[in-house]
Amino acid sequence: METPWWPRVWRPYSFASAPRPDGLLTFHVRAVRAGWVSRALVHRAEPGDVLRLGAPAGTTTVDHTTHTALLCLGGGTGMAPVRALVEDVAEHGDRRRVDVFCGARSERDLYDLDAMLRLQRTYPWLAVHPVVAAGPTRGRTGEIPEAVRETGPWNERDAYLAGPPGMIRSGVRALRDAGLPQERIHHDPVEEPVLPGQG
pLDDT of 109-158, one tens digit each? Predict the structure, then answer.
């Protein structure tokens, strides 16, 4: 009996688009300097290559049975799944309030900011808040958790976080400190930081 082939290495990636009727899936992958999986996907993958997908994990799906306002925190390419959530809300015709905090080291590093600002101009229920660690910006200077603590209140929101593990952990702490119950905080599983050569 032939043994099925299974990948020796799995990497978690979040959807970068809302669910589509044709089933097309979109992912955004940033090549990590020492990461052989991300570099292979970005620099070597070609049409016709086979990628095996595992079952989805985490809780980053919008509950369309409610009209609860949303709070989204995204860092780096974590903005891709945040944008997918915004598109999903729009496709369902929701008019619930959605606040998005997008963070990076500098404004130049803000991932897909122009696309998010275009969505903000299209949907009056959407507010985009850029947050950069340093330098000139169209938004706030600092870190996302501090920006969340200084604004709000958020205790009546459903929160969604995507990005580096450290940002997710500190974001969850900030939201809990702001009075948001754990069951209303959603994110993909938080992986340990990727070691050199493993990204």
Answer: 888 888 899 999 999 999 999 998 877 667 788 888 889 888 888 989 99
Say how far apart CA 175 and CA 178 lie, in whole Å: 5
Identify the structural domains of the chain with CATH numbers, from first to last.
70-187 (3.40.50.80)
Angle among Cα 187, 13, 71 to the nearest 5 degrees reads 30
HEC letters along 133-156: CCCCCCCEECCHHHHHHHCCCCCC
**Token pair in block for residue 71:** 């709070």
pLDDT digits (tens, 9 = 90+) for 41-53: 777 788 888 777 7
Q: At what angle do helices 79-91 and 113-122 cross, to 10 degrees?
A: 20
Phi then psi for residue 150, to 5 deg, are -85, -10
| Structure letter (DSSP) for residue 65 | T
Please say whether the beta carbons of 110 and 41 come within 8 A.
Answer: no
